[in-house]
Design goal:
It is built from eight helices and 33 strands. It is of the alpha+beta class.
Amino acid sequence: MADGTATEELPRLVLVVGVAGSGKTTVGRLLAERLGWAFRDGDEFHSAADRARMAAGHPLTDSDRGPWLEAIREWMDEAIAGRRQAVVTCSALKRAYRDTLLAGRPEVLLVYLHGSRELLGSRLAARHGHFFPAGLLESQLAELQEPAPDEHPLVVEVDRPPEAVVTAVLSLVRRESASGRQPAGSDTEQPVRAVARDGPSEPTGATGESWRLVRGGQSAVVVQLGGALRDYVVHGRPLLDGFSAGSAITGGRGQLLIPWPNRVGGGRYDFGGRSLQLPLTEVEKNNAIHGLLRWALWTLVARTDDAVMLGTTLCPQPGYPFLVEVRVEYRLGPEGLRTTVHATNTGTEPAPYGVGQHPYLTVGTDLVDSAVLTVPARYLLRTDERGLPIGRESVDGTPYDFRTARPIEGRRLDTAFTGLDRAPDGRAVVRLAHPSGLRGVDLWLGEGTRYVQVYTGDTLAEPERRRRGVAVEAMSCPPDAFRSGTDLTVLEGGATHVLRWGLTPWGPP
């Protein structure tokens, strides 16, 4: 496989659909090249009469499209029967058209390329020598029936270069293949679906646009600045000590920490035969802290009522001369809030990479002292006065052994834990419980998490926010990993790293 992915992990055939101008042909061809698969453009199946009709400015009717769709379907069946993996494109504007191509073909994965009316129009206006004129765009949009959840579409925005769109498609295809396809009507999560960007769900403020997710008694708010998680409430009970609408982010609340969590001592590290210097963002301790994307405005990729996907590009810059595409998905489900972070090296050389996220949990106590904490970790990292690791030791016999639930009391925690004990499902669970023991919240650590930082906020710049919540930070690597190399991920060109964590409330509402 050209893209280094095992053939048996992927679908037999990918159908790429979208309105004219969405880049189906370019994206489909690039996707096939990346995978080493066959490729066919749906336009090739149009008859000469159909091409002439469209070139004259006349849209095709359903009866006109019938033979065209049948020809594409026959080619797909031949590819499936011949066990050839392939990518095929087709506008497939109506549900009936897609049903013709997809019905009875579980081997086919549907990818929908979504773009705004303005973007599509500008692309068609700049296109020359194609039989489809720009004037027919309105007729296509009038006919368009966007794929519904029961069609299980993978939805990707096309307001990026084709290579970035293909990278996003590959990431979603791999995730879909790893999780398995669910039959229509099953009570499982549905893919995030795109909507036209007609404004934020809440007014723009100090953190840019924001999007509110709702499912039953759950709600969450995600903001554009840094792709941060601002709020999570279940049946009226806040489970995050977050930040209010319109206010600035302080203390790293809810922020994504990319391409490294925690600190890099002196901001200087060696990689690939070069000595690199990062900006010092914790000046008082001479450290670079919490990555390079906390203050970037992320872009909406797709959303539904209960899920949102944001993305950004980490461009080459002083101290980090690498190109990485990042996506984060927040999703509310039956078990709570789930977060998935995908990072793909779209450059040509290996890149050092780490990731973390910085939510502060609360169970409604005034201070965290009376809250009951469980951390299923066998080791902690000792640090110096700059917060840099100087050794690893067992938690046995220390005040930091939270493998058995115990109140936090007066302990000052800013501690990285590792040696996580995991359940059969691969998750390690950090629990914060109300003193009554009747309710609380679990933060589970899934794929890509090897460390967890627990911080009681004793050194926050705002005294009134200290010890109001417990930061429980999922991390892929320890502090200072860029210098030590400990559990540092090296992303080869085209490779993707995935981090998964989530919040599960428990107890009565």
